[in-house]
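ERR on first pass: missing label on line 2. Operator R.T. fixed the label and resubmitted. Corrected input:
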Amino acid sequence: MFDRRLITHFNWIYLLLILLISAIGIANMFSATSSWTTAVQPVYIKQLYWLGLGVLIVALVCVFDYRHLEYLSFSLYGGNLLLLVLVLAIGKTSMGATRWISLAGFNVQPSEIMEIVIIIALARYLSETEHLRGFSLRELIIPGLILGVPALLIMKQPDLGTALLVLCIGGTMALFAGIRRSSLLFLAASGLAAVGGGWFLLHDYQKRRILTFLDPERDPLGAGYHIIQSKIAVGSGGFKGLGFMKGTQSQLSFLPERHTDFAFSVFAEEWGLAGCLLLLGLYCLIVLWGLHIALRSNDRFGMYLAIGVSAMLFWHIVVNLGMVIGLLPVVGVPLPLFSYGGTSMITTMTGIGILMNVELRRFMF
Amino acid sequence: MSLNPSPEETPGLRRRFIISSLLVVGIFFVLALRLWYLQILGVDHYRNLSERNRIRHVAIRAPRGAIFDRHGILLVDNRPAFTVSALRQGVDDRKQLFSRLGGLLEIDNEQLEERWQAGQGLPRYRPLPLLEDVGRQAMEKVQENSVDLPGIMVEVKPLRDYPFGEMAAHLFGYLGEVTEDELRQSAYSSYHSGEMVGKTALERMFEEKLRGTAGQKRIEVNVRGRELRQLTTRNPLPGQRLYLTIDARLQQAAETALTDKAGAVVVLDVNNGEVLAFVSKPTFDPAWFARGVSGDEWRELINNPRHPMTNKVLRGQYPPGSTFKMVVALAALETGSVTPSTTFQCNGIFKLGKSYEYRCWKKRGHGTVDLHKAIKESCDVWFYQAGLETGIDQIASAAQRFGLGKKTGFLFGGERSGLIPTRSWKKKRFGTSWYNGETVITSIGQGFVLATPLQLASMTAAIANGGTVWKPQIVQKIVNLEGDADWLLTPEKLIETAWSEKSLQAVRGAMESVVNDVGGTAWRSQLKNVRFAGKTGTAQVVKRKSDEEGEQAKDDEVIPYQYRDHALFVSYAPADKPQIAVAVVVEHGGHGSSAAAPVAKAVYEAYFANTTVNNDTVRKVASGD
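pass 2 clean. output:
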């Protein structure tokens, strides 16, 4: 019953890369939180458990042929939309945002799940609909709705970071499917207009973040604090870094959120440009490899799945790093495999499982 | 099974993959470029910022120089004081924190909240003091519970300490925080706000020497401002030590003898002007100022009708009363208007012309009086006549030669000059000429005449030493950190007068009788082992009909405090070979004999307690001379 080819054709090197990045992340987390005196389990141990669970998820996702997902895709999508509506209705509120609901005793963040589900749903839609000259505006209405409805619901929570990511992932997939040049120009123009109009729809704290991103010094102790401290940490790393557990910005707690969104700053301070380039190279490699898997996939559904997962990884990495090094505004996007967090680990590993699955089935007809 | 062809075989798709792969690489390259910009080009800038984050320069206050008496007894020192402060970056839940801290130290939360609000003007990185000088026990409590008190720290600062309490407070002066006005002056350019500086007296005069040099430590702090470790430390250099001419035993004896009365005591070395005791009462507690005086305490001091903040040794001006009689006697003897054997008849009243009458304090009169008796029993009538015959010009001249009417040039500012009236002074002041009646009352040290306790002591010392007025000096030496004297006292003569030995003998002999012979106004204060010479004085504050001693005693109970006479006593000892002079003024104390002389006696008892009594004196006591 168990197909031996699952083992022999599995891309072990890719998994090894993933584990390598995760290991660096956990070591970094150990350093970032070493000054904490806590009676409960240290976070790096918890992250290890999450990693274990993540590997298990990769294995589980690989066992079943991804093509089953094709049939499930719209029910998954519908279910997830329902959850997003439920979040708005009965979700838990913390720090001004409502993102969580309790499902069977677990705290679930449906917006995170949507990052995966949107990939599946769009992959199905795009694989079934092809336009030789690319999508026209009218033809884009349906995929636009598939993408826009959940994005709006997530934005309403509000969770700007995730909404943005969902849009980016979906956008990338649509772009890949092909959009007519005229339609693209129109979209770009209306996108710009929407940015202008959307400014008035943003919450105060979101506006502040964007303003302070443009000029962190306008609020050095408030919203600009994160960016300033993070840039100090990264910059003071120099070429060789200050050494493991020796970064003063992180060890003396000047750096906020240093085990979650700003974990990379800790790494940059302690390992310098040399370490950063290595890590950057690894991340670049897994994204490119993902694209490669898409290219070599057997069918369109698989291709779009792999593109979607690659896009998910890519945007997460770019948005997080861009924020940490002061190229992009502060939006709460975790760095995959590096920032602490179970949800992030599960979505990332599910995506990687799908990617592995697509590659595996190339040989299995 | 998909019917679609593999993407690899679709040329359009293949191109898209190549383009998107290039885009990915390109964007990663941008990220790398940004990292290079931050970490290679910006490394110095950001390392500098990182240092500024974590490294704090903290001044370590220098202990102020200690002050010693002439024998090396410690008078003013420093002790470690513990201040409980809040690091504002480290405080999250203030309410909870204050209720914990308040509960721990049994202090009202409101009080902490008030201090918190009051300290909001301080720079944010500076600890905000909540409780000052909490004592070792409280400090230990806070330290032990520091885990539950995030943002609370204990600072140690040297605080001025006064082992003798209020003793000689007027001499030391007090400290206070440097004011905003002072900080703008160039003399205070090296000071920081919050620093303590000498505000009055010695602390102010020697601020520069006592201050010392603050040290500095570089500490590493975390984001909450809590100190993690010291990186480098430059130790503070304590201030220079001040050795005074004061003798703590005498100072203490004089202050004790004055009890709670208001007044002043000055003890001088007659041979060089060194000040051995310097008492002004009532006084204040300099420790209040060292820790920061509260508004209520300050108002209490300022509104006290007995003026605890006034240095009466220098600023108290009193009519010298009968203590002025030696000056008049010497003026009379030197001008030849009287001789020691000149007698006048005292029947209790002196008539000037037809309409003016001046009473002797003794209603019945003293009978036939010569100079000796006039001083010994303080006969006013003898002096009315002698003074009148000598004239105001000669009296004023003699007084000036004793340093009266002029500042002694004492170290601190604020000294008053007293007043010796002259004809020209009166013309200028009142536009009228001098009347003989004014000469009459000047002869017994009343009227316009005023002197400070320091001047009276200086005058008495000059009588004792044969006519030299020394500049009263208070600082014996200043010793620097290496133990070398930076400054040494050199005695300074202000006035030297060659009074004839005969005149001096007559006056001194009479002063000796005042204390040592039956009938002398201070004979109740005589000492067994030492003969001292003195003169009582009772200075009227308001004119009264009768000055009769007996009635006076009764009246003490009913006369309001502020109208009672000042009691004075000037003296020196030993009578035959003078070493020290003591001047005592007891404000509204009544009589010199009963209120002031015993204070001087107490000083002599202390002074001669451990000195081997000189043979000469013993013989005299034995022979009952």
